[in-house]
């Protein structure tokens, strides 16, 4: 069998192609995103109207937010971003399950007392809570069971204030399935009618660590983002993984065969906007990710951040592209080293505020093509318009 490569002229946006996808989203393209965080959730909500086959590989290395309590209590991967993306891709049509959606997106109140919160959780497990009662069996029974498993494993001093019920169900399912995320994520997809595929890039419970230009080192995703603590004062020199959060313990992570196959099946690979290191690069750290990308001949596109990302201190647009390529090419050998990791940079130079202009010399050096088109509307400025961005991505498939 001989491989034949076919090229075509692309129109952005391509109304005919977009219209065809909208009529039959169940037959839509397999667009794969490497991302975590909430930056891509609006895009995901738009995307599901055009394809139910998008693939989202999400980092499990976060150490902040509500997931931090669960990580400390159960020594588990981060699940907050997984739950957030699953919810964004949920079926919101009349064929979906709005009562399940309402339950899985519910958070316990921040100001309630411990006794009241325990009572709420116990009433959910018994099926007597007003958010649980409308859910039909067998879905209700499944939810009660996973919550019960979480409850039985929950440390006595666990703080339920602000806890997401979706996170508690995912945690219970993780513990109940021999500390594997895939079975409970699959179940979550069925409960919500998720119109896409969401997976943790690896099942490992590691933490992000960064060596800074000033020679110091920080361990923990929450110390990089500038959201829970003060922003970085020194640029990031190198990012890697640590087995522990309390001290730097270098460790390697390996891409799973299941996710290797998902990357191989992708028809378009996207490095989307979001926190540069903790949402994008974190997904590229496991060994095997770069090789899997290089082995797939589909188009790969980078959509750079607009404005100032605290994680990109001291970086201009050219630096961002070089850093992305550094992690994509890391540990490559053999045929994978000859593959392509990036074909296009998609941006809107007319309306977007980028850290710098993109160097023509760099574009030529990397042999990539810049697609400069309208991605920002009056309504969305200064951010990308999700509808325009989705239209551009669909046009490339």
From TrEMBL:
Protein name (Swiss-Prot/TrEMBL): Gluconeogenesis factor
Cited InterPro entries: CofD (IPR002882), CofD-like_dom_sf (IPR038136), CofD-rel_GAK (IPR027591)
Any Pfam family hit: CofD
Coiled coil: none
Protein source organism: Candidatus Thiodiazotropha endolucinida
TM spans (from-to): none
Lineage: Bacteria, Pseudomonadati, Pseudomonadota, Gammaproteobacteria, Chromatiales
One GO MF term: LPPG:FO 2-phospho-L-lactate transferase activity
């Amino acid at each position: 069998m001989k491989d034949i490569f076919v090229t075509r002229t692309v129109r952005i946006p391509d109304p005919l192609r977009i219209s065809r996808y909208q009529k039959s989203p169940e037959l839509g393209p397999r667009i794969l995103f490497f991302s975590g965080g909430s930056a891509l959730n609006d895009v995901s909500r738009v995307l599901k109207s055009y394809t139910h086959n998008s693939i989202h590989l999400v980092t499990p290395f976060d150490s902040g937010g509500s997931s931090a309590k669960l990580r400390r209590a159960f020594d588990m991967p981060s699940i907050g971003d997984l739950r957030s993306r699953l919810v964004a891709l949920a079926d919101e049509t009349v064929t979906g399950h709005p009562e399940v959606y309402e339950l899985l997106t519910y958070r316990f109140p921040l100001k309630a007392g411990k006794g009241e919160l325990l009572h709420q959780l116990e009433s959910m497990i018994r099926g007597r809570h007003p958010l649980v009662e409308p859910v039909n069996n067998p879905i209700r029974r499944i939810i009660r069971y996973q919550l019960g498993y979480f409850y039985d494993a929950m440390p006595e001093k666990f703080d339920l204030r602000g806890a997401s019920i979706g996170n508690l169900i995912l945690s219970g399912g993780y513990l109940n399935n021999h500390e594997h995320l895939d079975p409970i994520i699959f179940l979550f997809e069925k409960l919500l009618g998720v119109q896409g595929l969401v997976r943790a890039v690896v099942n490992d419970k590691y933490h992000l660590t960064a060596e800074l230009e000033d020679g110091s080192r920080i361990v923990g995703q929450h110390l990089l983002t500038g959201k829970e603590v003060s922003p970085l004062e020194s640029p990031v020199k190198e990012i890697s993984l640590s087995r522990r959060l309390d001290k730097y313990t270098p460790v390697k992570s390996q891409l799973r065969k299941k996710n290797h196959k998902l990357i191989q099946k992708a028809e378009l690979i996207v490095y989307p906007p979001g926190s540069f290191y903790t949402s994008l690069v974190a997904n590229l750290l496991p060994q095997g990710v770069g090789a899997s990308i290089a082995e797939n001949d589909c188009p790969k596109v980078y959509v750079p951040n607009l404005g100032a990302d605290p994680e990109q201190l001291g970086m201009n647009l050219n630096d961002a592209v070089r850093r992305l390529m550094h992690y994509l090419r890391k540990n490559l050998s053999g045929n994978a080293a000859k593959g392509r990791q990036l074909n296009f940079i998609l941006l809107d130079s007319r309306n977007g505020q980028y850290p710098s202009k993109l160097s023509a010399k760099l574009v030529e050096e990397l042999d990539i093509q810049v697609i400069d088109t309208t991605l920002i509307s009056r309504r969305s400025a200064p951010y990308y318009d999700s509808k325009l961005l989705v239209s551009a991505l669909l046009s490339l498939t």
